């Protein structure tokens, strides 16, 4: 399951107000999930290469996790101090 937090939703340009209702947040998360899964399908070969390289370096990740990390790079890669965590 993709990580569909507010940052991912923002990068995907899904409109979501700060004071959105639970139903609006759920709808935005589902839309983001659909978009991420489609992006995985559309970029499967490239994501598989990245996953293989990460696996060779003992940092295994799924294609969805790789795509989520690439979305975070849109924010300069500054997730939080001490991140990313080890596998």
Condensed summary:
Helix content is 59%, strand content 0%. With 87 residues, it is mostly helical. The chain has one domain.
Explain what you see.
The model is unreliable at 79-87 (pLDDT under 50). The chain has helices spanning 6-11, 22-42, 44-56, 63-73. It has one domain (6-73). The protein is elongated. The longest helix has 21 residues, at 22-42. With 87 residues, the protein is mainly α. The protein contains 4 helices and no strands.
Overall pLDDT, averaged? 81
Task: Describe the sheet with the most strands.
Answer: none
Contiguous uncertain segments of 5+ residues: 79-87
End-to-end separation: 17 Å
Output the number of helix runs: 4
How many domains? The number is 1
Helical content stands at 55-70%
Round the Cα radius of gyration to an integer and report it.
14 Å
Number of strands: 0
What labels describe this entry?
4 helices; elongated; disordered C terminus; 87 residues; single chain; mainly alpha
């Amino acid at each position: 399951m993709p990580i569909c937090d507010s940052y991912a939703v923002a990068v995907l340009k899904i409109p979501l107000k700060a004071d959105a209702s639970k139903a609006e947040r759920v709808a935005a998360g589902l839309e983001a999930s659909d978009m991420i899964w489609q992006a995985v399908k559309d970029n499967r070969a490239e994501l598989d290469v990245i996953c293989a390289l990460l696996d060779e370096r003992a940092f295994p990740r799924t294609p969805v996790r790789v795509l989520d990390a690439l979305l975070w790079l849109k924010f300069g890669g500054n997730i939080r101090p001490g991140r990313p965590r080890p596998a």
